[in-house]
Request: fold
Amino acid sequence: MTTFSSSDTAYLLLEDGRSFSGQAYGAPGLALGEVVFNTSMSGYQEILTDPSYTGQLVTMTYPLIGNYGVNRSDEESDGPKVSGFVVREGSRMYSSWRGEGGLHDYLDRHGVVGIAGVDTRALTRHIRAEGAMRGAIAPVSEASEAVLDRVRAHPRMEGLDLACGVSTDRRYEVPAVGEERFHVLAFDFGVKAHSPKLMAELGCRVTVLPANTPTEAIVEADPDGLFVSNGPGDPAMVEQAQGAILRLSEMGTPVFGICLGHQLISRAFGARTYKLPFGHHGGNHPVRNLNGGAIEITAQNHGFAVEQDGEGNIPGAPDLRTTHVNLYDGTVEGVSHRDRPVFSVQYHPEAAPGPHDSRYLFHQFLQSMEQCRTRT
Reply:
């Protein structure tokens, strides 16, 4: 089944003026955003529909993308959230018993501008050396001088609150599978569908809340636990969750956060965050668990990190201790509160896509809720 054939030329232009040529892929038009790269070898549909990629042009480093097509089961939200998509080779055929359509048609149907035929190896090396930067995917008919002006006028990721734009506008429930053991509130700052699903499979009824839900409404719900989700943008611009995190933790309610949620929990207790040079995006990032020393291969997607000093402490947050460290660059990958049932990790334990090394963290969340229920 042929899914892609295009002779329309296009180019990817970075804010420093470097250009990469290719062919139009997906929807026609021009797309602007921060250019990042993802090292996953598969899982492109989960990546496309991950709300944490809002505002970004995602480059896949694996050279062949689209070979198993797309399907409804692999979507992590209600559709693609990336601003644009960059691949080396967009497969002309797809073959899978789960396949329901081709990737090119999927992107076109959802209005996602893409480009194929790009030297993604050279692009990735450039971003690694120079840092993530703004860029544009444009048809060759668009003059590069005018496109470059638009790229340089486009907002930087620092200072952007993108979470509210991708959060649900109404609360909804994911019922527990089998007997209901706990009721968890999930703060949606761009939550992927797999996280509530995994908690539901462990016996949790999960109520997903809009990002602007007032703290008092969360406290009055008296949940067994609070889950703070992943999401896009600068964590310094997202303050909605801090009050609920502090109030519930004071009451002894377990709090668990991932990705942006990890940054928000850290900031709630006084930590600072900063922009990484080119972020962590992919399914092969090694992380050391300092509680025992095990190495986890993790799925990651973030552009910011929690500050630490030369001794591994977190300035401004003496109540937090570092629990996980990235083995690529030594950044903080996990924290826990010294006295309260609060913990978080920078990566994605739901692993959609990615390895399943870190799914124990959802069980750890359940154990924390069980212990709190026993004490009361």
About this structure: The chain has two domains: 9-153, 163-375. The CA atoms of residues 312 and 322 lie 7 Å apart. The two ends are 60 Å apart (CA to CA).
